[in-house]
Write a structure and sequence with these properties.
The protein has eight helices and no strands. The protein has about 220 residues and is mainly α.
């Protein structure tokens, strides 16, 4: 039997989180401020709080990502590295979550179409490691260590027979890759930054919302 009050709470929370996400999108090019940080953090933290009522591992993953959002919304190298660490923890929590689901089967990684996706992920990882080794400067070690964690999340998603989970994982990974290009490759005044910031946010928050919707609703 469907728990209608719980479903209503989860649906309302998703809509509320979407409102926070739109609030941040409206300010995506604005200077750092606590209201801006608040919108960004609340858009994922609200999902985490409700996920905790039924799916603790999802709550941990979302909560760590919300902490990463807060850190990345603040200025400075220390805040950036704190955000990278929080997101690495979030990815690892997703790995644990996906592999703990009843439908998870690691042998799927050896068969098509997941097998081809594994090869593609290996190519993406090599390209990102090469890019970061060239452009990330003094932070190259920390951010290069993040790449295998991202790939692990993608591989864990592929063990599930759920295309929407695959889609969300790909969106999450692409948002991370675009963020890396924006942070380390594009000059501060590059016109592409007008597009990268909203693209990163829409892909990233869309991935979190899709994970929430598929695993909770």
């Amino acid at each position: 039997m469907i728990n209608e009050p719980a479903m209503m709470l989860e649906t309302v929370t998703l809509l509320l989180a979407g409102g926070f996400a739109l609030g941040y999108l409206w300010q995506v090019h604005a200077d750092e401020s606590w209201p801006r940080s608040g919108f960004k953090t609340a858009s994922v933290l609200s999902l985490a709080l409700v996920a905790g009522l039924s799916t603790p591992l999802l709550a941990v993953a979302l909560g760590l990502c919300a902490l990463g959002d807060l850190a990345l919304s603040r200025p400075g190298e220390r805040a950036f590295l704190a955000g990278v660490g929080s997101f690495a923890g979030g990815h690892l929590a997703y790995v644990w979550l996906f592999l703990s689901l009843p439908d998870a089967d690691v042998t799927r990684l050896l068969t098509a179409p997941a097998g081809w996706a594994v090869i593609a992920l290996a190519g993406v990882a090599f390209a990102m490691m090469s890019l970061l080794a060239r452009f990330a400067g003094e932070m190259r070690v920390q951010v290069m260590a993040y790449v295998p964690v991202i790939v692990a999340m993608g591989l864990a998603a592929l063990t599930l027979p759920t295309p929407l989970i695959w889609c969300a994982a790909v969106m999450f990974m692409i948002s991370d890759m675009v963020l890396a290009v924006e942070t380390f490759v594009l000059p501060p005044a590059h016109p592409a930054r007008r597009l990268t910031a909203p693209v990163i946010w829409l892909l990233y928050w869309g991935a979190q919302a899709l994970f929430f919707a598929v695993l909770i609703l």
